[in-house]
Structures are given as structure tokens and as C-alpha cells.
Amino acid sequence: MNPDALADERPSAQTPERRDSDARTALVILLVAAVLFIALRARMISVPFERDEGEYAYVAQRLAHGDAPYRDAFLQKTPAAAFVYAAAFAIADEGIESVHLMLYAFTAATALLLYRLIAAAAGRVAGAVAVLAFSLTSIEPRLLASAANTEQFALLPLTAGIAAALLARQRHSWRWSAASGACCLAAFWFKQVALAPAMVAPLILLGGRGHRPFPDGHDRPRDATPARLAAWLAGGTVVSTIAVAYIALSDAWAAFVDCAFAHNWAYAQRVSPSDGWTALVARLAEQWPSMFGVWLLAAIVLAWPRGAVETALADAAGDARPSSAAIRPRELGLWLILSFIAVAAPMNFYHHYFVWLLPPLCGLAGIGAGRLLQAVGRTGPAAVRGKALVRRAMPTAVAVGVTALIALPTLVANRAIWLAAGPRAVSSLLYRQNAFWESVEIGRFIRSAGEPSDSVFILGSEPQILFYANRRSASRYTIMYPLFGPYADAEGRQEEVLEEIARDRPRWILDVRLENSLTPDKDAPTLLLESVSAMLLPGQGYRLSGLVVAKVQQRRFVTLFGEEARRHADLYGLPEVGILIFERR
User: Fold this and answer.
1) How many angstroms separate the CA atoms of 346 and 497, rounded?
2) Helix (H, G, I), strand (E, B) or coil at 543
3) Pick from 481, 539, 469, 556: which is nearest to 510 by CA?
4) Half-sphere exposure (CA, 13 Å, Cβ side) for 260?
5) Is 424 helix (H, G, I), strand (E, B) or coil?
6) N or C, which end of the chain has less CB nearby within 10 Å?
7) Torsional class of 263: left (φ above 0), alpha (ψ -120 to 50), beta (otherwise)
8) Can you say how many angstroms the Cα of residue 186 is from the centroid of all Cα atoms in its chain?
9) Residues 473-493, buried b or exposed e (16+ Cβ, 10 A)?
């Protein structure tokens, strides 16, 4: 994208001195953002995969073996994330760091687009503050934003789609409209709920009447909105046709509809509004200590009178009139609202769902910071208004204060994670009683003790173990939640799994006894639990080969394999909390 593409050629309202000062301030803020971007992600790059990451990594790994999403692995989301993982593996290797580096590249590109959007609307300083806020919140531990989840990847095509819509509005271009539609629908293929914030783009196009010369040479209003909307739909259709064709040619269409739509619909109805409200309040309370500065700056714009904000933005950006290429505060507010719909769609308000809010929220925070700097630069306290040196220093002081307001809360509130001694400690602090670090050890053990043709059945939701072991799942259900939730078809899905493992006779069976790995509904069928327990009884062909024992008071796990695991079981019995690894003799 042309760096100047989001700016019209207009007479500047700024003095050269102010332009130079803003450029220097913006550069310093961007340098701070870059340092924090790199430093904080260096702490996270080797943190082991959590469940969702493990799911995408396993599907990506199996693509090389001819497997297809949905047909061979139950996947609740649309499939683009798995293909990004596969691209990361192809570029580097099948490792945690490869995926996280790919995520950081997506995040950096999103930050660059956000800078262009906000700088065109409110000036360089506002754009730099937006980048600073996004650099920090997009790795925020209280959002579990360090994980390479679908939301994180989808932000890039979504933001690109909105930027392209602004260019289409400025240039009355059907090509940019088509590019916008293609990007927005690409975001949908990362996750279905991306359609909600993606609707900002066609709404931008709807507001795009302008002036163009007619054949008779006169300049009169011409409304090209229908053509631009048609081009937007055409661009989205092209991207979706490619995705649909792949799924259909993989003989996975029926499974895709079942996983990504039928089950998702049931999934979205499982939480009551009262429980959803409780979860929302709890999540916001968790986020507040590290993100209140960003919300506070955004609130300045949301609460300020519309005319005053737009006048200030035009002056801050150096514009004599608003630009049709610049995103407007009310459009950012609309983007924030539609993003909240994506967050709230399933009503369970998981931590990483709030990532959808980050681009518009950080954009508004940048504009709020720009508004503060503009107000200080224009007036200043009456006591120092006549003192030129002090008055010139005040915008710098405010810029420092804004930077601290955004950066210090997350650095202080999450200091235990930023100062933790290595990725194992970080993983333990982030994910508590989840054996994600131990999953790496289990995968290595299975890989070293067995054969590449072995299959593994995990009675739990730990697909990351399959990835580390580089072994095929004996069932297409690598996540057990659809089998034990409050769903009418749960028993049928359990019967499907029993048929799969009866045919396959897996070499390895893992009995996962961790609360977050099954989360069974109180009325969930118990057929699968009872049948697998019977398979693991003495004399049925399986023996204990490994244990992951939870030490609850110490908030850690102990991993034992082979004879050591069997001796521990003889002495202390099988643990009630942990992971039991059985091998077929």
C-alpha cells in the first residue's frame, strides 16, 4: 500500500515548527513501541501451545499427510488459521517459534495499517500512540493474546479490508472496493464471527458519495455506491469460492457444515444471558488493571462532542477539511461496537475473544491522545501561556504522560509474567492447571517409544500432544467438548468415536483427568468414559506407560514414564488429577 494513499493533497493548517515537533514526537513513540513489541514477544515466543494452537498445529501437520480439515479432524472454526500454521511450518520448521514468528509478522503488519488509518485521520502522533497501544494489548497476558489464535490472524485482513474501503470511498474505485471485500471475507475464513466487524467496510462504502466530472465537463455529485458495493461482494465471493472449492474437493463439505455451522449454532446457545453477563463483568475486571489507560484515552473521543472532535482532528492532521480517505471517529466507534458483537456472540466471553476490540479501541486511544496534545498545544495553562519555552515543552510532557499511561499499567500489572524465569514459568502463570509444558514431554516420549504409523486416542482436549508426537489421532475428534457439552447430538458423537477406536485399535490411549480438558455437562452421556475405562482395565491389552501427576499445592506437574510411572502407581495409586498414558502391548 502506498504510504501516502490515505492522505488527500490539501493545504496544511500546521506550521513547519509544529510539523517537525509532531514528527519527532511520533518517531520517539514509535521507537518505544518497537522496543516493547520485540522485548515482550521475546518472552513469549517459546511458550508451548495451548489447546486451540495445538488444534491448528495438528491439522496443519496432517495436511502434509493428505488429511483434510473437517473430514479427518473436527474443527469448529473456518480453516484459514490451519493453513497459516502450515505456511509457517513450510517456511521454517514444525516448531512453536515458527508459528509465533508468523503471528508477530501478522501483528506488525496490522499495526502498520492501523498507523496509516489513524495518522490520516488525526496526525502522526495519534497514529504512533495507536501503534503503541496495539503493540502492548496484542500481547496482553490478561487477554491470553500471546497465543496464535484465529482472532489474532484475522485482524490483518480485517484491518486491510477497512483501509481498502476508505481508499475506495476516496477514489470512487471499484478495484479497491473489490480488494476490501476480498480482505473482509478472508477474515471470515479465519473465524466466522469476523463477519460482524467486517460490516464496517460496506458501511464506509455507503457513505462515499463524492464529486466527479461528468461527460459534459461539469462537476456534479455522482453516487457510485451500488457499483462499489457490488465490487465488494464480488471480491468476497472470489475468496470464498476458492475456500469452498477446496473444502468440496476434499470431500469435506458435509463435515464442514456440521462442524463450523451446525455445531457452532448449538455452541452459541449453551450459555444463558445471566451467565454471559457474569462472565463479561469478570473479564473486564481482570483486564482493567493493565488496560485502563487505553480505555481512558478512547473514552475521550467517545465522550467528546462530535463537532469538536472532528475540528480538532482536521487541525491535528494538518487538513483544511476532512478527508474522505480518513477514518472518522464515529466509524471507529461503529467498528468497536461490531467487534463487541464478535466478542459476545457465544456469550462465554473467553479471554482471547476480546482481541477483536483491539484495532478500533487502540485507534480511538490514539485519537484521544492526539486530542489531548492538540488541546495543550493550542492553549496551555494560563500561568505558562506566555512562556514560550515552557509552552513548547508541554506537548512533549503530555506525550510522555500518554506513553506512560498506556505502557506502565500492563508492565506493572503483569510483571510476574514479564519477569518469569523462562517459558515453562510463563506457561504455568498464564494457563494455571493445564499441562501444556508437559504436553511437549509426552509428545517426545510417544514419538521416541513408538512408530510413525502409530495412532493415539486422547480422552480429553489436548491436540497439542498429537502435534508434538507427530502421530495421527485415532478419532477425528481431537477436542472432546462437542461430545460432553449440553448438545442433543453428544451421544451420537460419542458412538462415532467408539466406532473409530474399535476399528483403529490405537497404540496409545491417554486418559486426561484435568478439569479444563473435558468440562462435562451434568447431563452429558457417559458412554465414552465407561467404554474407554473398560478398555484400560487389566487384561484388556493396555498397560500404564506414563503419568503426569498434578501437585496442586505447588501448582506444578510431575512427569513419569515407563517403569517409574508404574512404580508410582503401585505405591500411590492412579492420580485423580493428571494424565494417564497407556500403551497397547
Assistant:
1) 26
2) strand
3) 469
4) 23
5) helix
6) C
7) alpha
8) 14
9) bbbbbbbbbbbbbebeebeeb
Query: Residue 55 is inside which H or E element, if any?
Result: helix 51-63
- Read off φ and ψ for residue 402, nearest 5 degrees: -65, -45
Computed over every residue of the chain, the mean pLDDT equals 89
- Compute the distance between CA of residue 108 and CA of residue 183 in angstroms, rounded to an integer: 17
Going from the C-alpha of 203 to that of each of 25, 221, 232, 497, the distances in angstroms are: 34, 19, 11, 45
The number of beta carbons lying within 10 Å of the beta carbon of residue 375 is 15
Distances 335 to 114, 203, 304, 414, 480 between C-alpha atoms, Å: 13, 10, 18, 28, 34
Cβ proximity of 112 and 128 under 8 Å: no
Q: Letter for the amino acid at 352?
A: H
Whole-angstrom CA distances from 50 to 84, 102, 291, 438, 464 are: 17, 16, 23, 11, 7
Q: Region of 500 please: left (phi>0), alpha (psi -120 to 50) or beta.
A: alpha
Q: How many CB atoms sit inside 10 A of residue 188's CB?
A: 22
Distance CA 207, CA 39 (A): 41
Q: What pLDDT does 389 receive?
A: 54
* pLDDT of 15: 63
Question: How many CB atoms are closer than 10 A to CB 525?
Answer: 17
- Name the phi and psi angles at 73, rounded to 5: -150, 120
Q: What percent of the chain has pLDDT over 90?
A: 75
Whether the model clears a pTM of 0.85, i.e. scores above it, the answer is yes
Give the integer Cα–Cα distance in Å for 474 and 454: 9
Amino acid 108: pLDDT? 98
Question: What is the rounded CA–CA span in Å between residue 544 and residue 332?
Answer: 56
* Phi, psi dihedral angles at 419 (to 5 degrees): -105, 5
Strands (E), 416-530: 455-459, 472-473, 508-513
The three cell numbers of residue 30 are 514509535
Contact at 8 Å (CB) between 466 and 441?
A: no
How far apart are alpha carbons 519 and 483 in whole angstroms? 10
User: What ranges make up the beta strands (E) of 286-443?
Assistant: none
Q: Which residues of 13-47 are buried (b: 16+ CB within 10 A; e: fewer)?
A: ebeeebeebbeebbebbbebbeebbeebbebbbeb
Q: What is the dihedral of CA 26, 101, 136, 193, to 10 degrees?
A: 110
Closest CA to 183 of 155, 204, 224: 155
- List of E strands, 435-486: 455-459, 472-473
48 near 464, Cβ under 8 Å? yes
CA angle 124, 129, 131 (to 5 degrees): 95
Closest CA to 531 of 568, 574, 563, 496: 496
- pLDDT for 515 beyond 70: yes
For residue 512, list its beta bridge partners.
579
